[in-house]
Amino acid sequence: MNTSSATEAREIGNKIVVAGIGAIVAILAIAAILLFVNLPDANAFNARVEQLFVENDILTGNAEIKLLEILAQSGTAVSDTLSSYRFVIFVLLTFSTALLIAAIAFLVMLVAMNRRMGQIERKGIEVNSLLISRDQKSVYLNNFEFKLTDAAIETLSVLAEARMDDEVMSGAEIEGVISGRSAADCDEAAGATRIKRLRDTLGNQMVSELLVKNIARKGYMLAIDKDVIRMV
To answer: Given this model, what pLDDT does residue 44 score?
Structure first.
């Protein structure tokens, strides 16, 4: 049921993102259409000059004809300018649309990544395989190799065996298993020290803190699925 709910939520989120991007593109398209419709016609000035020629056929002097020719040339220049303005506006609108869509896409990716990191913080590391090799003093976590000391290997092995039995071990119990003594004769701090050294050996704070969980008033356990653990 949780998987189904997560899938439905993801599908709804994808639909919302697609709808949002579509709405943005539609708004920009409408704005572009309104802008181009309200821009003056590129040939409006030429049409007005032509009207002047037609309505003022009595202007036959050289000076008047020269003035009308200048107006005609100005009309052509204005027409070319308005055409270039339309092209520039079209390019700017296209560029702004692409930038806005890219910004939304990156924002969605960032939100998804933050949610994923939040899930990791709440649930721990998603481990697909944990292979403990005592002979090689190595641990393979999701195919990433970690070289450990003998003490760290022993501590991790004890935690792995306890996890396969669904057990939570206190520091005294960890120390007892490794030292071969009764847990009642061991110090809680000794086991806690082994856990600290294991985390230090793993190195990566995120890996070590999320892999080895400290359960208050109970002890320590591996925060992974027991079915992925293998020991050789």
So the answer is: 66
